[in-house]
Amino acid sequence: MTNKFLPMGKLDPHFLENLINSLPCDKRVIVGPGIGKDAAVIDFGENYLALKTDPITFTYHDIGWYVVNINANDIVCVGATPRWFLLTLLLPEGKSSQKLVEGIFEQVKFACRRLSISLVGGHTEVTPHLDHPIAIGQMVGEMPKKRLIKNSEAKVGDLVLITKEIAIEGTHVIFQTRKEELKKNLSLETLNKINNILYTPGIGIAKEALLASENVKVHCMHDPTEGGLKTGLWELAYASQIGMRIKKEKIPILNETKTLCKMYDLDPLGLLAAGSLILILSPKESQKLLKIYSKNNIKCNIIGEVVSKEKGVKILDGEKEYYLLNEYRDEIHKIL
């Protein structure tokens, strides 16, 4: 144990795991806390309940939309359908008006309607020592027991897939953080695309996740957020005790994301990645899912394959290859 101050962002996963392993758990807990696990799962009789809580801290723009979708994303990754939502909203003293609060609640209501989720409670207050609003969500979902996805069942020979493009969330956060700067350097068309990126292609993954869990046998499904795609892949490899071979040229990245990352010298593979869904399935189930996604106009790419743990997780970049290390610190911290 040390008194050294911790850096901003996620805790070291090994330190966190030591804390988690000391927690008591009752026999109805089917999936408890752990690295690479998106939500808790509780045996509730005929069905399982899935539970998740997540705050929105990197940005306060559109936090109502963010907080619903980010929490729903983790629920669908275990195979559940999000149903009920609780919101804790902390507002900065001296900076919060009724108009601000009404705007946040409109975003929450819009997001809940889109996903057929009921807002069932929470807490709202004006809080001292805050610079901007902070939203903390708790989502509850349910599912048939046969649909559970544990993220520990990847097998050698499975394929690794990714939906949409990576770093959608990070692109929007960069835009909100450096908006005035970007207005001087980018076209109005590009600025408008980035401004709307939360909605198109969007940070929600409920549609593609539910299509997968309802129609094919998914071994793993994960929502990469802080730390980006690299951290998401590492977490899945750790949870399933496997290795991976990931082809960098197959990873889809929006041109707008490439532009911003080049401007600020950021690695898009390590940038906030809500909006993408990582899936691991057998080759046969992968082809089946790709056909389903094609019919539903959902972009999806095969970016690699599962190999044995001993081979490690590697990124293949043309003729070069390098190990994907546990870099849980997000690229966004470089410009915040």
Structural account:
Helices cover 34% and strands 25% of the residues. With 336 residues, it is of the alpha+beta class. The chain has two domains: 38-147, PurM-like, N-terminal domain (60s Ribosomal Protein L30, Chain: A, 2-Layer Sandwich), CATH 3.30.1330; 159-334, Alpha-Beta Complex (Phosphoribosyl-aminoimidazole Synthetase, Chain A, domain 2). Helix 2 (63-76) runs parallel beside helix 3, helix 2 (63-76) packs parallel to helix 8 and helix 4 (168-177) crosses helix 10. The longest helix has 18 residues, at 98-115.
User: What Rg, in angstroms, do the CA atoms define?
Assistant: 20 Å
Distance between the termini: 28 Å
CATH homologous superfamily assignment of the largest domain: PurM-like C-terminal domain
* Fold-level CATH name of the largest domain: Phosphoribosyl-aminoimidazole Synthetase, Chain A, domain 2
Domain module tally: 2
Q: In CATH terms, what is the architecture of the largest domain?
A: Alpha-Beta Complex
